[in-house]
């Protein structure tokens, strides 16, 4: 698996659960790329693993490698710098780490997670043309703001891959090819219930937010003033407390996944504070925080665009205090409800990821 995540990081996302299932099929390697000295200047969740960089490690039976370079290619964001962007990406892919080369040569299957991983497709086909190639669309490339160079390469190589697995059918419009597209949604770890007690809270109303994707601190600036009786817990948002937060906002550092579960289960309300008015629709299917809120029966507050058909979700317009007030007020008085959706187990997800054409429920329906 080629990804910008590291299997050993505290943050748990879909690729971690997928890797844990893949090792049941055979030796599994987790190659983490796009990490450098530049990453130290950002809220990269892999910073805590810096001492492990450029060394093969083993975690829970999975081989791990965090490739650290002096500088990694990135989105320069301005057309005037496009030649620099292109140079950095070409140099990166033309000088692959020897561990990546070795793992590609040994692989039966190579999974490219959305991000820069597809730039290594031609390298895979050259080193190991028999390997099955699978693209895992955890996120849309525009949403995670990848460089134009990566988008161009993906457009070129996507039709050549054995399968493009979308975590939501709402991603289909952004795919350069639909002939090899399948829908393989996020799975769910049903063992979370075993790790979600006791409550970390005292008496009173509590709201919780977990994670950093598209995190909008302004939501809590507004909400903490409108609802002084609610204690807001923000876990792993990737930034320090905003100076305009109310005194009823508690900011926690990123913590291991299992430790977040009691905060979720025992909260009054779950919050998914995505910052853009144009939040991608696919997050209604793929937001793992919203999936966990639903599993534990929490009423959830999220932007209007990702409410979907969930009766337990209450939408607001980012930046609109009135709509934030209405959504949070409704959520606070709504009782817990049974889960709205039945989710696949991660083992069922991996079965579909490896052979999506064998399952009727992976087909794209237009």
The oligomerization state is single chain
The strands making up the biggest β-sheet line up spatially as 12-11-10-13-14-15
Compute the CA-based radius of gyration: 21 Å
Number of helices: 11
What is the name of the CATH architecture of the largest domain? 3-Layer(aba) Sandwich
- Kindly name the structural category: alpha/beta
Main sheet characteristics = 6 strands, parallel
Distance between the termini: 30 Å
Tell me the count of domains: 2
* pLDDT averaged residue by residue: 95
Series of H and E elements:
EHEEEHHEHEHEEEEHEEHEHHEEHEH
Q: In percent, how helical is the residue content?
A: 25-40%
CATH fold topology of the largest domain? Rossmann fold
- Low-pLDDT ranges: none
CATH class of the largest domain: Alpha Beta
Number of strands: 16
Global geometry: globular
Residues in β-strands, percent: 15-25%
Structural write-up:
The protein has 2 domains: 2-186 and 348-358, Rossmann fold; 190-332, Rossmann fold (3-Layer(aba) Sandwich), CATH 3.40.50. The protein is 27% helix and 19% strand. The protein has 11 helices and 16 strands. The strands form 4 sheets. It has a 6-stranded parallel sheet, sandwiched between helices. A 4-stranded mixed sheet has the order 1-2-4-3, with helices on both faces. Strands 5-6-7-8 form a 4-stranded parallel sheet, with no helix packed on it. Helix 1 packs across helix 11 and helix 6 (217-226) crosses helix 10 (321-332). The radius of gyration is 21 Å and the shape is globular.
Outline of this structure?
This protein is an alpha/beta fold.
């Amino acid at each position: 698996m080629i990804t910008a995540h590291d299997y050993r990081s505290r943050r748990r996302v879909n690729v971690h659960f997928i890797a844990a299932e893949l090792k049941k099929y055979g030796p599994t390697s987790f190659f983490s790329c796009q990490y450098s000295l530049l990453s130290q200047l950002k809220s990269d969740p892999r910073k805590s693993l810096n001492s492990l960089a450029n060394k093969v490690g083993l975690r829970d039976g999975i081989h791990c490698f965090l490739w650290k370079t002096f500088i990694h290619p990135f989105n320069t964001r301005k057309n005037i710098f496009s030649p620099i962007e292109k140079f950095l990406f070409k140099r990166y892919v033309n000088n692959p780490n020897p561990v990546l080369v070795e793992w590609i040569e040994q692989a039966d299957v190579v999974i490219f997670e959305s991000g820069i991983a597809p730039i290594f497709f031609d390298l895979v086909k050259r080193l190991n043309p028999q390997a099955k190639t699978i693209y895992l669309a955890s996120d849309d490339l525009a949403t995670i703001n990848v460089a134009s160079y990566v988008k161009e390469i993906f457009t070129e190589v996507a039709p050549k891959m054995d399968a493009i697995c979308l975590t939501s059918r709402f991603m289909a419009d952004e795919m350069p090819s639909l002939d090899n597209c399948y829908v393989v949604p996020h799975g769910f770890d049903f063992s979370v219930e075993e790790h979600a007690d006791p409550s970390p809270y005292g008496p009173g109303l509590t709201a919780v937010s977990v994670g950093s994707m598209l995190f909008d601190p302004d939501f809590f600036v507004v909400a903490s003033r409108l609802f002084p009786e609610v204690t807001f817990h923000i876990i792993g948002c990737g930034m320090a407390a905003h100076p305009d937060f109310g005194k009823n906002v508690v900011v926690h550092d990123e913590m291991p996944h299992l430790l977040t579960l009691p905060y979720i289960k025992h909260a009054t309300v779950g919050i998914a504070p995505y910052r853009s008015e144009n939040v991608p629709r696919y997050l209604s299917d793929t937001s793992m925080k919203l999936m966990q809120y639903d599993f534990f029966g929490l009423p959830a507050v999220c932007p209007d665009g990702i409410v979907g058909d969930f009766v337990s979700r209450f939408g607001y317009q980012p930046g609109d205090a009135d709509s934030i007030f209405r959504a949070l007020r409704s959520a606070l008085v709504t009782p817990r409800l049974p889960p709205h959706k039945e989710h696949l187990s991660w083992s069922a997800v991996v079965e579909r990821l490896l052979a999506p054409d064998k399952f009727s429920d992976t087909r794209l329906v237009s």
